[in-house]
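Hi W., the adenosine-5'-diphosphate complex you wanted:
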Amino acid sequence: MALIIQKYGGTSVATLDHIRRVAMGVALTKEKGDRIAIVVSAMSGQTDHLLSMANEITPSPSAREQDSLLSTGEQTCAALLAITLESMGHRAKSFLGLQLPLLTDNVHTRARILDLPTDVLTRALDDNIIPVVAGFQGVTEDGSITTLGRGGSDTTAVALAAALKADRCEIYTDVDGVYTADPNICPRSRHLEKISYQVMLELAGLGAKVLHARSVELAQKYQVPLVVKSSFGSEKFTWIVNEEDVMEYSIIQGVTLEKNVSKISLIRVPDRPGIAYKILSPLADASINVDMIIQNASIDGFADFTFTIPTTDLEKASKLVDEVAAEIGALEMLADNNIVKVSAVGIGIKTNPGVAAKMFKSLWDENINIEMISTSEYRISCVVEEKYGELAVRAVHKAFDLDNSDHSQTET
Ligand code: ADP
Ligand code: ASP
Ligand code: MG
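Structure:
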């Protein structure tokens, strides 16, 4: 008898009809004799709706209360699915993060899981009850509700699979697996039957939201067999596997678009030791993730200092940097959220010269200006103006011969 964790994303539980359909699928798996635990996201749009209500009251609600509010989306959905399963004659029970308890650190809005005891869930499973766990949420040691970051229900599911030593973790969503680029942006993207944890982690970290990056990290660490499937019926799916189990690799395996990026520039910063530290350390203290950093060559003892951060942190970061700007005597601070990051990801980058040049040429061919560049062993990222983001993805995808030649299949 296998133990399967199934996670259903927002679009899969968008309405009561969708929830009924999910319940029928769950029941079918259960009737086959497998043990099954479910993780659900909030119904599609619900998290954004809750967030916009809080923002109507204030643009900067406290992170603690925001978490408390957003966790109710998953709570509602878990209870509705449990009620539906019960109405169909199954035994089911919903669980919130704090009832398991899924313990996290206290970094509200992007908490990390510290511990997940299994006794509550094991007891339910042993009693032939289907546990329906509210994803995306946890609880701190002192009882505050936390959330795991947008898209975090995937991470709840993988954490559950790891803790319960499940045979597999199935992520049900609105696409039938992982593609070489977001199929909703790039109609010629190719379906991947398998992708390595490592490449998937890079793609997820750079904007491929089909899986939450932390879920891939956990799956790799605990060797959780992870599969992405469609909850809308398709024969196709994608397994996330170890590097050695992926047969063949091209130089670039995927192209991503990250929309949650903004940049902050400090103009005419005195060029002396300690300045970069002074600018960035308040951001580190506030747990704001700084990504690309550029400092121009200094002229007359002054330089411009530019970096990117998630747009969700822009307001907080601008305030902090503005204070430093005054302290260090910078001329002015500029904030820009009209940008996106396009990345080409591939394990072949480090061993193949000319990959970056090819990416830059493909953007030039479309007359797209590159505002910032960063590279690592596995990726090349370019910041471009937001309105060119999707075009840039398609151009880079094509340049690396990733386009599916069978366009009848995917062209819209
Ligand atoms: P869920 O609500 O089920 O968690 P998400 O919206 O978080 O679903 O993730 C699924 C979406 O991820 C797809 O609709 C697709 O637009 C997007 N996506 C981005 N990059 C990729 C990719 N490389 N392959 C497949 N889907 C992708
Ligand atoms: N409901 C949360 C979100 O919209 C978590 C998730 O869907 O995984 O981000
Ligand atoms: Mg998601």
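Confidence is low (pLDDT under 50) at residues 408-412.

W.
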